[in-house]
Amino acid sequence: MKISLLFAALLVLPVVLTAEASPAAPSRHPLLNAWRHRAVEKFDADRDGRLSPGERETAKAAHQEKARTRRAARFQRLDADNDGRISRAEWDAATVQRQGRAGVVRQRLLEKFDADKDGRLSRPERIQARGALREWFMK
To answer: What is the rounded CA–CA span in Å between residue 65 and residue 28?
Structure first.
């Protein structure tokens, strides 16, 4: 679950960094507000509360470098035999591992938020679980 949110963040972050970060115009999405706030906090050199074009370029370059590092680390994890290529077997093994982690997360969510113990999350239970995940992710 956290990995999926991370990939979503990597897709959204460049858009957030190019937007003007103004406290007067918050997004309707709390995660975007948090990312925007962190970007301004980290890259606002003149402390005027917004990212100037130069500061946005600095933030974009830092984001791209971090993405390159993460891609390289991900590739190293997938390339089990270190031959510089990801074979079908390596890809399939990673898929099985990822599905196993997703199953564990799903099971933990059921255990924690399935109040009526029917084996599935009803709408109110899903809303409660989403809120808890959002709080956990925003830490």
So the answer is: 28
CA dihedral angle for residue 4, residue 126, residue 99, residue 64, rounded to 10 degrees: 0
What percent of the chain shows pLDDT beyond 90? 45
Which amino acid is it at 32? L
Contact 50, 44 (CB under 8 A): yes
Q: Is 19:57 a contact under the CB 8 Å cutoff?
A: no
Report DSSP letters for 55-78, one per residue.
HHHHHHHHHHHHHHHHHHHHHHHH
Question: How do residues 94-137 score in pLDDT, each as one tens digit?
Answer: 999 989 988 898 898 899 999 999 988 999 999 999 888 888 77
> 65 exposed, middle or buried (CB, 10 Å; 0-12, 13-18, 19+)?
exposed
Give the C-alpha separation, 96 to 57, whole Å: 39
State the first-to-last Cα distance of the chain, in angstroms, to the nearest integer. Answer: 15
pLDDT at 59 over 60: yes
3-state secondary structure string, 119-136?
CCCCHHHHHHHHHHHHHH
